[in-house]
Known about the structure:
Radius of gyration: 16 Å
Strand content: under 5%
Oligomer: single chain
Largest sheet: 2 strands, antiparallel
Structural class: mainly alpha
Order of helices and strands: HHHHHHHEEH
Mean pLDDT: 97
Distance between the termini: 24 Å
Strand order of the largest sheet: 1-2
Helix content: 55-70%
Amino acid sequence: MAADPRYPVGQYEPKPFSIETKVEWLADIKFLPQALEYALLNLNEDQLHTPYREGGWTIHQLVHHVADSHINAYCRFKLGLTEDNPTIKPYEEKLWVTLHDVEKLPVNVSITLLHALHLRWYETLKYVTDDEWNNRTVFHPEQKKTMRLWYLLGLYAWHCRHHVAHINALREQKGW
């Protein structure tokens, strides 16, 4: 049976804290811009405007989504590191990809943004202590859930791999 095209690397599954997992997840954050840029290498405009799966976003929309999502993630971590269990702001990601900036701007704008953002994000995260990973939290009001920064690190490391895999799976399927 074929894997679910919505989740080419599987769904996010939290893991208990370990130094090995922390190193792996931090590398996912650090190297996402390069991995995404490599996945986009030599794609033309028609290919960029191809949905990565039936009913899914186009690659163009997906790249801008990753930038939007990771801007929010960066802010969530900064809040979690500087405030006591802050309430984070949810956003309508499906509506964000319909805005004019996503429609009009080329993907290289978001790739450039991701390079700078991930450099800042990784620099912040590499100094988080083991105690902070396990004890600093944020509150997600839509999910009515308190989340440890460790959980968020895993979620966004997964998010990096998840969307790069969408593009690579489409490239393989189409023979690009």
